[in-house]
Amino acid sequence: MTITPTPNPAEEATAAASGAAATEKFRSRQHTGSAMADTKRVDTLASEMLSAVHDIIRRHKVTYAEYDALKAWLIQVGLDGEWPLFLDVWVEHVVEEVANENRQGSKGTIEGPYYVPDSPSFTAIATLPMREDEPGTPLLFQGQVTSVDGTPLAGAKVEMWHADANGLYSQFAPGLPEWNLRGTVLTDDQGNFRIHTKEPAPYQIPTDGSCGKLIAAAGWHAWRPAHLHLKVSAPGHQLITTQLYFRGGSHVEDDIASAVKPELVLDPAPAASGTGNEVTYDFVLDRA
Ligand code: MBD
Ligand code: FE
Q: How far apart are CA 220 and CA 175, in angstroms?
């Protein structure tokens, strides 16, 4: 018997649909099989991971019923396409911590499952692609990209993507324009950029799939604070992947994905234009 996602005639956003899209996008972007070519390294990491599991089983006297529940759940995570979601929510933050521990410049945080490369490109003053009636408070996000020595970086790439006011990401939920709330903005000759968008809302990870089942079974919540995703890059510099949050917003203090850092919390103020809010945030890139 093949197991297929539940039919979804109303084209609602479902865990199965966003999971399948995230899994497919990840697989199409990944060419890094060689990272696992070192036998000694694989031996060390796989052995230690298994030992950690064995230790938990002994300490908590895990039963056959629990072992079978785990097996069924792991199978279902794959069927739901939720491995990218699971890993990015509960594991990636430690990988990011280790990867960026020696950076001098701006803080990074996790990428998450919903990045898409090659979004539409704009010069320094840009409005992200959005629907005519895109809901949400207008937000002007502006700043400067510099090198760690303070040199402005002209032509730096500021890629931004975020959910809409309903918590949906284009290309991972039905009914949204392909590049809704995704764009690549190039800085001007002083390294400056200005991006007009709409403030995102707090975001609940899909609750109708395997990750949702785990959350419910463990008595956790499924929320991430409202956030903007960014990748900032320039020739001769290390790309930074980050997210920015909004002070005082829900779940800034208890992000399910553990991806908030104090340096990443914005303080928007009413915009000088009189419409919506604005905030300035500068990016400092480490040399490559
Ligand atoms: C998201 O939007 C996200 O940013 C992460 C890290 C996990 C799930 C959904
Ligand atoms: Fe996100």
A: 30
